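Amino Acid Chain and Its Fold in Token Form
===========================================
What this section holds: a protein sequence and its matching fold, both as plain text.
Structure line: whole-number tokens from a learned vocabulary of local backbone shapes, matched to residues.
Purpose: to set a sequence beside its fold so the mapping can be learned.
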Amino acid sequence: MPLSAWIEGIGLLAPGLPDWPSARAVLRGEQPFTAAPSLLPAPTILPPAERRRASRVVKLTLAIGLEAAAHAAADVGTLATVFSASGADGHNCHALCEQLATDDRQISPTRFHNSVHNAAAGYWGIATKSMAPCQVICGFDASFGAGLLDALGQVVIDRQPTLLIAYDSEYPEPLHAKRDTPDCGGVALLLTPTRTTRSLAAITVSPSNASAAQLAEPALENLRTAIPALRSLPLLQLLARGESGRVCLDYLAPMQLNVDLQAC
């Protein structure tokens, strides 16, 4: 059974794509893509103590989630959320492994609480004071698709706006040799059950056995395959262009996801 909703807000941060307006211009072909490290803004919404502890993953998820909510003029404190990532905080994991490899195996409380997969969701709750439902899931390279299905399911069943935040972070060496995500990047989509004056497009997702869509620009295609959350880029390109159409996104082979967009 296809799952359908409306898209009201978009947030994006990735290497060379610091926010959604910049990415939209690149995906439209109005500006060339220029490779650059991901620029993570300071999480000023957090209280000072938590701000000092905020990891790259926390800064990333707050940036894209808040951008999507602001795009839709939504109240972040009321939004149900779905956080989806192929891993947790790579740099924190590296630091824990380094500490455990020494004679002093005492782990700091901050390192420990940042090591769990739902750390970013926890910081989101602190920052926004949200008491709304929150899901945290992982599907390795299919994490964007898994998060999209989960968020759409909540919109369809619970009839409430739901913010999907899909994200990934890099690991330092030697873990990088086994999981070579080059940098952090992510996308946020605010999905709603009904059309409003702020709706950008209707979205319908269904299973498929087709091949996943690829991007014509080699550098953008490399981002799509290198950072799991950016498997969303073909969908974002349609949204950037304001076009209706269908794209097939990577999921759990051999199953893929057909995404149909009807632009408003």
